Amino acid sequence: MSPSDDPISSIFFERQQAALCAQHALNMLLQDSLFTYENLRDLARQMDQMEHDILGNNANAVGRSENMNDSGFFSIQVIEKALETFDLKLINMENPAMAEFKANPLTARAYVLNLREHWFVLRKFGNQWFELNSVKNGPKLLTDTYVKEYLHQFAAENYSIFVVQGILPNSEADDFITLCPVVPKPIDSDKKEPNMVQKFFNSVGKRLGGSLEVPDSQEDRDLAIAMAMSMESKESSESSGSDEDQLAKAIQMSLSQDPNIPSTSTAPSELTETPILGPSTSSGNIPSAEQQRRDRAKFLEKLEEKKKSQNVPEEK
Fold first, then answer.
1. Average pLDDT, the chain
2. CA–CA dist 262, 191 (Å, integer)
3. Would you name the residues annotated as active-site residues?
C-alpha cells in the first residue's frame, strides 16, 4: 500500500527497544533514522566530561553519569545537544516566554514530552496532529481539541512539556498528509456510550478497588447478565423511561434471585449518598458478596422512596 492510499503510513515511526525512548523520540521528531545509541552515548560522555571540567571535585565520581544510564535513558541535555545540529531548541512550556503556546498549543509544530524517564513526541504533519510514542503500535491521529486537552492533562500530571523551537526538516509525511489528510477511522457501532447500568457497575468496580485486568466472579457475571437482559427487554418494548427507573428494575431483578435478601418498603426519610457509588469510607477491607447485595438493596429502597416522594399529589 502506497502512502497516498494510507497517508499515516508515510510517518516515520520507531517501536520501543530497551529504554531507548530518547533515541526514538528524536528520530520520530526529525522523521528519519538519524541517531543511534552510540551517537547519543558519545554526546552524553562529552557532556559528562564538560561538567567534570567545570565543576572539578564537585562533579560526580568518574564512571557515574547524570546524562545517561545503562538501560539507554538519556537526559534532556543530551536531547538538546543532539538537536543543536538542526538549529532546533527545546524550551519548557512553563517558561514565561512560552505563554503564547500555553494559551494556544496549536500554534506550535511539535512538542517533546517526558514523564518518569519516558520520552515521546506530539508532532504536526500538514494540518493534523499525531502522537508519536514508541511504546504504542504506531502514530495516533489527534484532533485539535484533543491536543489541547491532552497537553492540559499532561501538565496536571506533572509531565515535562517542551516546545520545539525552530524549523523542522521537511519530510515525506509532511508532503503526503498536506495533500491527502488522514481520514479518522469510523467509530465502532458496537462501542456505545455506557448506559446507566454500565456506569453503575463501573462505579461498583472502582468502589471495590477492581481492575479490568482482574476477572469478575461468577456471581458478578450472573448479576451483570440479569441486569443486561432486563435493560434489553426494556429498550425493545419502550422508547421512554428514566435511567433511574431502568436501573432500579434491573437491580430488583438481580436481587429477586436471592431469597435471603428481604424486600422491604421501609426507606430512610432522607436520600443520602449511597456508599456503593461514592468513595470508600471503610478501613480498606473489601466487603463480602452478602454486604454488596445489601448495599444494592438499600440503594434500590432509596430510589423507590425518591420516586414516591416525587409522585405524591398536593393536598387540597
1. 75
2. 37
3. 21, 118, 133
